[in-house]
């Protein structure tokens, strides 16, 4: 589960702000338990335990079902990440390029693969030739098991402007038929034909619905990804603010009129779990792929 610091996430923070509910989460992390079993373990009455369970369920942290005459609860998430807003290098000016996920210019993909738009799937699922379907331009989510998609975008940095760093921001996940919250995949990033590095996605998430994912998308398929921010500077590449690789701006042919961005799951990847790219109208961040060129 991914959270931010908006009021939309407040119910989750409130659900966690209780020593009793934290104990319940620890117990459920071992195995699903009934209300009676939790009451005995916590030495509390069943009505009090039920109130705490209702709070956790309203925050979508647990799920409950009837098994015979018992109500059994189990954990719904195994990880919570919190994203804080930040102001990045305000002294630099910026050229921002927003690239819709369906506007790739080159691809080679293997099933499972497909495209989805606001109203439904685009073309036929698991048939790579539909990746060249004209309606792909309307895609808000694409996925593939192996291969790559490649995007091109103009280089707007002027002759009298000094490029200081490049930021690449996108929402990504793995790809599993339907979904699998624990399904690692090695996704390699490249700019202008030069590899920046490989990130291991932890899974293909459907534990809760994506904040912006359309209602037509079934609950048991890809719902959201993880927002990743790559930054290339003159002294290395960083991923989410942490050192990633030694690739610098000077390693990239940045003087070209057109820049190329590639997302790839290689044939020899150690964890070959596919790639899902979420764009505007899907996932948790309602954004397209963003390439920001900071300059002075």
Automatic annotation (TrEMBL):
What InterPro entries has UniProt attached to this entry? ArsR-like_HTH, HTH_ArsR_DNA-bd_dom, HTH_MetalResp_TranReg, WH-like_DNA-bd_sf, WH_DNA-bd_sf
Question: Taking every annotated instance into account, which residue ranges of this chain make up the domain HTH arsR-type?
Answer: 1-95
Transcription keyword on record:
yes
What Pfam families does the entry give?
HTH_20
Q: Which PROSITE patterns match?
A: HTH_ARSR_2
The UniProt GO MF terms for this protein read: DNA binding; DNA-binding transcription factor activity
Instruction: Check the record and name the Gene3D superfamilies matching this protein.
Output: Winged helix-like DNA-binding domain superfamily/Winged helix DNA-binding domain
What domain of life does the UniProt record list for this protein's source?
Answer: Bacteria
Keywords associated with the record: DNA-binding, Transcription, Transcription regulation
Residues forming coiled coils: none
Residues annotated as signal peptide:
none
What name goes with this protein? Transcriptional regulator
Natural source organism: Levilactobacillus spicheri
């Amino acid at each position: 589960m991914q959270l931010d610091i908006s009021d939309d996430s407040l119910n989750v923070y409130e659900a966690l702000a209780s020593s009793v509910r934290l104990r319940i989460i620890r117990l459920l992390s071992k195995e699903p338990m009934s209300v009676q079993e939790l009451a005995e373990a916590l030495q509390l009455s069943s009505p009090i335990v039920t109130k705490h369970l209702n709070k956790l369920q309203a925050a979508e942290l647990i799920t409950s079902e009837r098994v015979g005459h018992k109500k059994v609860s189990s954990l719904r998430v195994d990880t919570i990440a919190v994203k804080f807003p930040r102001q990045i290098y305000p002294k630099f000016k910026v050229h921002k390029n927003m690239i819709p996920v369906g506007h790739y210019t080159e691809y080679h993909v293997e099933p499972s693969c497909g495209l989805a738009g606001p109203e439904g799937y685009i073309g036929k699922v698991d048939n790579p030739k539909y990746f060249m379907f004209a309606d792909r331009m309307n895609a808000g989510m694409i996925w593939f098991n192996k291969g790559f998609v490649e995007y091109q975008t103009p280089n707007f940095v002027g002759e009298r402007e000094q490029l200081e760093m490049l930021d690449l921001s996108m929402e990504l996940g793995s790809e599993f038929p339907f979904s699998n919250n624990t399904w690692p995949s090695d996704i390699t990033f490249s700019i202008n034909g030069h590899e920046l590095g490989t990130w291991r996605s932890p899974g293909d998430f459907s534990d809760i619905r994506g904040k912006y994912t359309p209602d037509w998308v079934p609950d048991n398929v890809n719902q959201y990804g993880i927002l990743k921010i790559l930054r290339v500077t003159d002294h290395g590449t960083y991923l989410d603010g942490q050192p990633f690789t030694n690739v610098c701006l000077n390693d990239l042919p940045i003087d070209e009129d057109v820049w190329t961005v590639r997302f790839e799951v290689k044939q020899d990847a150690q964890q070959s779990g596919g790639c899902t790219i979420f764009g505007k109208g899907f996932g948790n961040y309602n954004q397209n792929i963003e390439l920001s060129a900071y300059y002075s």
